[in-house]
Design brief:
- The protein has about 160 residues and is an alpha+beta fold.
- The chain has one domain (about 10-160): Dynein light chain 2a, cytoplasmic (Beta-Lactamase, 2-Layer Sandwich), CATH 3.30.450.
- Helices cover about 45% and strands about 20% of the residues.
- It is built from 4 helices and 5 strands.
- The chain has a 5-stranded antiparallel β-sheet with strand order 2-1-5-4-3, with helices on both faces.
- Helix 1 packs antiparallel against helix 3 (about 110-140).
- The radius of gyration is 19 Å and the shape is elongated.
- The termini are far apart.
């Protein structure tokens, strides 16, 4: 199922990027990604130069969708955390607020326990930012400099 896209404002983007940067540093991770469930990369931090970020975002969303199908088959709503262990690198994937996917790529310089601990804190911060963003989207006039402009004001502007 395709989830609707949402608008990202600069203020929220900067806050999300800061959380991703802090998570990358505090978890001693190589890369942190935030992806929407449609596979769109929202933010990233760390060593992304040698990665195909578009493919990674799309495949992560596909992975979440596939495991969501598996979860439903056994009577679960979804699996909120996935872990993939490789020879060199590991992926910790978690769903944040039911809306976005947080991906942490780390190697032997970190540990699963440390990543899980830092992801838990970062997820709470991201959920708060996403909730504020949702409120802003639902009430776009709140805090807008144009909130007090009425339809009558606009008509008067364009009439002689």
């Amino acid at each position: 199922m395709v989830t609707p896209q949402f608008v990202m404002y600069e203020e929220e983007y900067q806050r999300i990027a800061a959380v991703c940067e802090r998570l990358c540093r505090d978890a001693n991770a190589n890369v942190v990604f935030l992806v929407d469930k449609n596979g769109q990369l929202l933010a990233s931090a760390g060593q992304t130069d040698n990665l195909d970020t578009t493919s990674l975002a799309s495949l992560t969303a596909g992975n979440i969708a596939a495991t969501g199908g598996l979860a439903k088959l056994i009577g679960e709503k979804e699996f909120s955390i996935l872990f993939h262990e490789g020879e060199r690198d590991n992926l910790h994937i978690s769903i944040v607020g039911g809306r976005v996917i947080l991906v942490v790529i780390f190697d032997s310089r970190s540990s699963l326990g440390l990543v899980r601990l830092r992801v838990k804190r970062a997820s709470g911060e991201l959920e708060a930012i996403l909730e504020a963003l949702t409120q802003k989207i639902q009430d776009p006039a709140a805090g807008s400099p144009f909130a007090e402009i009425t339809d009558e004001d606009i008509d008067n502007l364009f009439n002689d």
